[in-house]
Amino acid sequence: MTAPRTALLPRPRAAEVLPAPTAPRRPWTAALRTLACGAATAGPAITLATGSTPPPLINFTVLANLLVAVAFGWSAVRSWRGAPPLPPRLTGGVLLLAAITGLMHHLVLVNYAETPAPATGLSLAATILLHTVTPLTVAADWLLLTAPRALRLAHIPLWLTAPAAYLALTLARGALLAPGSPARYPYPFLDVDTYGYAGALTQALALGLLFTALAALITAADHLRPNVAGWIQHRRNRISPPAAGGLK
């Protein structure tokens, strides 16, 4: 009795196995995202160095900038190596955090009398980096360097876990600190001493609904915006010289 025909076929050697195709490296994208990572890191670093009040690591803006720095640093490495981009469920969450940071500062917090005016020098530089430069760089990356129609409404609950976790952290920290402690609550609309838990949670719920609407607006805009990244890549491919050996 002879062995089956398939058993008689030679096994492919390791050298004969073709390597998996890799995407081209994107050095310009990596460079721009490295700069964005640096800007998102510089703001928290200056804030920590100047010892601002409230403590920097309980400030939503500082924590959001640190998350942006991690995401953009990771994305820059992947762009440099030619790896696939980060999934939209992560990049959309980073975009929402950056939008919340910029809009809350410029539209809400500046109208509170309790919000201290930024001083000159390093404090002013940190304020501009945290609330303006980082949100704008994240928005520019989304508009210019990512493909459209990737965000989904199903991603929104995941994106909102960060603000919800921050709310829980803030209220737990405030409950552990003694009444009258400086910067017990980092934002005036979350001040339980002033509004009570019912009032603070009501304002937090209203903000949560606004954040949900903002996330839905970002998702809708993502499906309507033009594919600038694809156009840039197409233009780059048209002007790139042919590879060696490509012409016969």
Automatic annotation (TrEMBL):
Ranges that cross the membrane: 57-77, 89-110, 122-144, 156-176, 196-218
InterPro entries: Pr6Pr-like
Keywords: Membrane, Transmembrane, Transmembrane helix
Protein name: Integral membrane regulator
Annotated organism of origin: Streptomyces badius
